[in-house]
């Protein structure tokens, strides 16, 4: 039998911190240019115009706008970083 205090239960991490929402909202509000690397290696550059739980809408000047599913994104970074 373990002694009292030898093992303390850790609290469960929250399901969501809402940091993604804050970050995406900043990218939209400040019209920050982004480059998105997809899981297949393709890259997309533009501005995030809209997002929801499943996808991002990327506006690309001079090209067709895209809906990119979040599960297809390998990583995203801000242009100029």
Keywords:
14% helix; SH3 type barrels; single chain; mainly beta; 5 strands; 5-stranded antiparallel beta sheet; 81 residues
Question: Could you characterize the architecture of this molecule?
Answer:
- The structure is a single chain.
- This protein has 81 residues and is mainly β.
- The mean pLDDT is 89.
- The longest helix has 11 residues, at 19-29.
- A five-stranded antiparallel beta sheet has the order 4-3-2-1-5.
- It has a domain at 35-81: Roll (SH3 type barrels), CATH 2.30.30.100.
- It has one helix spanning 19-29, and strands at residues 33-38, 43-51, 55-59, 66-69, 73-78.
- 6% of the residues are buried.
- β1 and β2 (43-51) form a beta hairpin.
- It is 14% helix and 37% strand.
Give a quick summary of the entry:
By secondary structure, this protein is mainly beta. It is built from one helix and five strands, in the order αβββββ. The longest helix is centred in the first third of the chain and has 11 residues, at 19-29.
Number of strands: 5
Low-confidence runs (pLDDT<50, min 5 residues)?
none
Adjacency order of strands in the biggest sheet: 4-3-2-1-5
Q: What's the helical proportion of residues?
A: 10-25%
Structural class category: mainly beta
Radius of gyration: 19 Å
CATH-derived architecture of the domain at 35-81: Roll
Distance between the termini: 54 Å
Number of helical segments? 1
């Amino acid at each position: 039998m373990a002694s009292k205090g030898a093992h303390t239960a850790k609290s469960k991490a929250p399901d969501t911190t809402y940091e993604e929402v804050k970050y995406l909202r900043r990218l939209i509000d400040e019209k920050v240019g982004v480059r998105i690397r997809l899981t297949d290696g393709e890259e997309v550059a533009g501005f995030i115009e809209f997002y929801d739980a499943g996808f991002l809408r990327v506006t690309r000047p001079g090209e067709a706008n895209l809906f990119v599913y979040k599960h297809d994104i390998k990583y995203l970074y801000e242009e100029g970083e």
